[in-house]
Amino acid sequence: MKVLLVFSPSLLINPDQVLASNMSPPLGILYIASYLRAKLPDIDVKVIDGCKIGYKNTIARIKQFNPDVLGISFYTTLAAGAFKLAREIKENFPSILVVMGGPHATALPEDTLQQSKADIVVVGEGEETFYQIIRIKREANGNDRYKHLLGVWYSERNYHNVCIYKNQPAKFIDSLDGIPFPAFDLIDLHSYTGYYLSKQRPEAPMFFARGCPYHCTFCSNVVWKSSTPALRLRSPKNIVDEMEYLKTTFGIKEVFDQSDEFNNNYKHALEVCREMKKRKLGMTWKAQLRARPFSDELAREMAEAGCWYVHLGIESGNQETIDGTNKFIKLKDVENTCNLLKRYNIRVLALFMIYNVWEQDGNLRFENSEMCLNTFRYACKLIKNKLVDYVGWSVTTPYPGSKLYNIALRNNLIKPELIARWDVWQRQEIFTMNLPNISRREQAITKLKGELLKFIIIMKSGGFKLEDLPFLAKRATFNLMQVVGRRR
């Protein structure tokens, strides 16, 4: 049996409009590929990063390989490409079993089945469920063969009728250590640039954990909310074993932990650092961080273990917004954590969102432009006081799977022509929410101020790679043109 796993291509042609393309390989399908090979060593598994090679090349590769099963993984911003890809394959190769998965498919499984014409949607974590799909396809016959398979929605077509069956969610895999390392050998790992701020190259992404115990309104990480427990941790040994594998096999010198927050579990974070120090691999690493729980001890251990850079989720300079979106941190926590990180020379990129939305006592609340400018001033204060080194600046987007998406729908904030128009959502200039008495031009100007601040401090820092300079310049120009082009 031949199985092809595809990370969906984009339908956009202009590379400046594609978010973070070519930086990191698609870990999700690489994990599924390694899991399948471990469970079914006799099957032929291949991987395609469609976002990297484009739609036409993806179609050509699929036709060339001619798989028995095609798995397509995608985010909301790639949904239009994923749906078109699935439809084209089903129309031209109806015998291929097409399976959709990933965050968007988990958030909107029925919409995914209807728009893609796929056979099955995997809801939640993919490794075990996709393996069971392959096993059942090999061994079972009949229209009801997926009837008892947890974690899937599937469709059956009889003449002109389509029936959709909705199975219960699957349980998470108990031990993350039991999942083999991603199948990096199925891709050209060195063809990915890595994040544009790095200390050593080449770089590779990792997941030290899966899930998050918090419930921020804007978070759309619905895959890790599809079952329990909300947070699962790899053992420190397993994490550092993968780091060593990446170094010895592929020459990787730096890794970026893509888990939601490195310090979700304080004790585990300390143990990971101590395992890294014990192994003395000489690798550097980056992570995503919460403002709490944190301490001088953890900052020191991270630095001694080779961590030199973190993404710190602050989101807003307004405590009202932080409280309203269930972030459960205080601005005082942010400043204390930044002080500790800087004490050990760990660089900080502060992540901010503007025009956030929440509900309070059943009433719509949102950030106006003055509140967003207060966030801008807060970011400038942190930079002036040398508490952060860089800033990330984005307009809040209500992605499916988040509480924010439901809030936006309830309050008619998403323009009707944008609902289910996922191809439009991918463009960086899009403002998906219409907020009362705030014009698009006003939003664009506020966004531009943050983007210019971001660009200026990156240029001053010198921490970027020279090959990324054209990309950064295009991004700044692109954002400027959005302001010039706004008329309302």
How would you summarize what this structure contains?
39% of the residues lie in helices and 18% in strands.
Please characterize this protein's 3D structure:
- The protein is of the alpha/beta class and 488 residues long.
- It folds into two domains: 2-166, 3-Layer(aba) Sandwich (Rossmann fold); 194-485, Aldolase class I (TIM Barrel), CATH 3.20.20.
- Helix content is 39%, strand content 18%.
- The protein contains 17 helices and 17 strands.
- The protein has a seven-stranded mixed sheet with strand order 2-1-3-4-5-6-7, with helices on both faces.
- Helix 1 (27-39) links the parallel strand 1 (2-7) and strand 2.
- The longest helix is centred in the last third of the chain and has 22 residues, at 440-461.
- The protein is globular, with a radius of gyration of 22 Å.
- 44% of the residues are buried.
**Strand percentage, roughly?**
15-25%
CATH superfamily of the largest domain: Aldolase class I
Which structural class should the secondary elements be placed in?
A: alpha/beta
Helix content: 25-40%
In the sheet with the most strands, the strands line up as 2-1-3-4-5-6-7
Radius of gyration: 22 Å
- Amino- and carboxy-terminal Cα gap: 56 Å
Q: Sketch the major β-sheet.
A: 7 strands, mixed
Count of alpha and pi helical runs: 17
Counting structural domains, the number is 2
CATH C-level of the largest domain: Alpha Beta
Shape: globular
Using brief descriptors, characterize the structure shown:
488 residues, TIM Barrel, 2 domains, seven-stranded mixed sheet, six-stranded parallel sheet, 17 strands
